[in-house]
Write a structure and sequence with these properties.
This protein is of the alpha+beta class and about 375 residues long. The chain is about 15% helix and about 40% strand. Helix 1 packs across helix 2. The radius of gyration is 25 Å and the shape is elongated.
Length: about 375
């Protein structure tokens, strides 16, 4: 077998799928890329058995069809050192010796038999499909993924929920302290389904989707999901279990509404958070008469900070506390000029909303408060 490919195109596609490969694998062949040649098309696959990422692109020329597995680190490290040029890759089908010819030299190493690479599972005949614009899927993952948990005892919290209904599609993530819900009414499913996408494939989608402009075909059954893009296919196992009813925890009647500039609020939070107690990371907010006073202190090290910013609020004085990093995460991920903070009392969750939602979507972020001693 022999084929000729652009060095930069080959490197770009292989780097994208290499993020699937674990640093330590139970099967040695999972340290490899599976490369398959069919006509003038090359299909490259990387897998950790739970998640499989496949990409394909056109070759300049090829002779013979077949598949083989090449050590990913060896191939990537060698390609990174080459400038853009056509590469001729020759594979001896008997010895599996691979020779890469480039402008001024050549590389040689041994491949493995492609038949040993784990096969990607097929979805059940009862699987369902959903067509979703790449931009909608990317926005849903970007808006929610940061709020997902790393909880070994509650794996259902360790991913992004895709809640599909005939009326809309909702993305949700929560770690029990913060919760993000993004509903898009421009996408409709044929039936109701709630899928939990693990963090790893969700992060892979974040990398690949910015290059996509068309529709993503999402196929799923009760245990697996497949995302089909123009040049990539991601196959992964869904997180097993039932996600809690997220709508129940969202407070409905919030009489106190605060309008504040997001950038000013975020920069102030970052400044005062430096002086917060390292154990509790508490930021106290005192809201009254069109201003917010933010205070932090660490008695153990005799440090404190206090800063006041203006806002739009007319009502009784409210004092509430939040964990510094959590509220910074929330405000950082609200992509809007002004945000609305809705509160009821210091013991109930605060809602963080954009002043104006983008077309066809409704974004809500929730953060549980911290107990104040005073």
């Amino acid at each position: 077998m022999k084929f000729i490919a652009s060095s930069s195109a080959l490197l770009s596609h292989l780097q994208a799928i290499s993020r699937v490969i674990n640093s330590k694998n139970t099967l040695p062949i999972l340290d490899c890329f599976l490369l398959k040649i069919e006509g003038k098309k090359l299909t490259a696959t990387a897998s950790d058995t739970e998640t499989t990422l496949v990409t394909n692109f056109d070759l300049i020329d090829s002779e013979g069809d077949g598949s083989f597995a090449i050590p990913s680190k060896t191939l990537l490290d060698s390609l990174r050192e080459l400038s853009e040029q056509p590469l001729t890759i020759d594979i001896d089908e008997n010895s599996l010796e691979v020779t890469i010819y480039y402008q001024n030299g050549k590389y040689k190493f041994i491949a493995q038999n492609g038949d040993e690479f784990p096969k990607m599972k097929e979805l059940k005949d009862t699987s369902s499909n959903l067509e979703i614009p790449a931009s909608v899927l990317l926005n849903g993952i970007n808006s929610t993924l940061f709020a997902s948990a790393d909880d070994e005892l509650r794996p259902v919290m360790n991913g992004v929920v895709l809640d599909i209904s005939p009326e809309n599609v909702t993305f949700v993530a929560s770690d029990s302290h913060k919760l993000v819900r993004l509903t898009n009414t421009s996408v409709h499913g044929d039936q109701k389904a709630m899928l939990i996408i693990p963090k790893k494939p969700a992060n892979l989608l974040r990398v690949i989707l910015p290059k996509e402009t068309g529709q993503v075909i999402v196929s799923f059954d009760d245990s697996n999901i497949v995302f089909r893009l123009s040049s990539y296919t991601i196959f992964c196992r869904l997180v097993e279990g039932r996600f809690p009813n997220y709508n129940v925890v969202i407070p409905q009647n919030n009489p106190y509404k605060v309008l504040v500039d997001r950038v000013s609020f975020l920069n102030t939070l970052k400044r005062v958070a430096i002086f917060a107690n390292q154990a509790s990371s508490l930021v106290k907010m005192i809201i009254s008469n069109n201003h917010i006073e933010l205070t932090t202190q660490d008695i153990d090290f005799s440090t404190s900070a206090e800063e006041t910013i203006s806002c739009q609020y007319e009502g009784e004085r409210i004092t509430i506390g939040f964990k510094a990093q959590f509220i910074i995460d929330i405000v950082s991920n609200l992509n809007t000029q002004e945000i609305v903070l809705e509160l009821a009392d210091p013991s109930r969750a605060g809602l963080f909303l954009p002043l104006q939602n983008e077309e066809n979507q409704d974004l809500l972020m929730l953060l549980m408060p911290m107990l104040l001693n005073d």
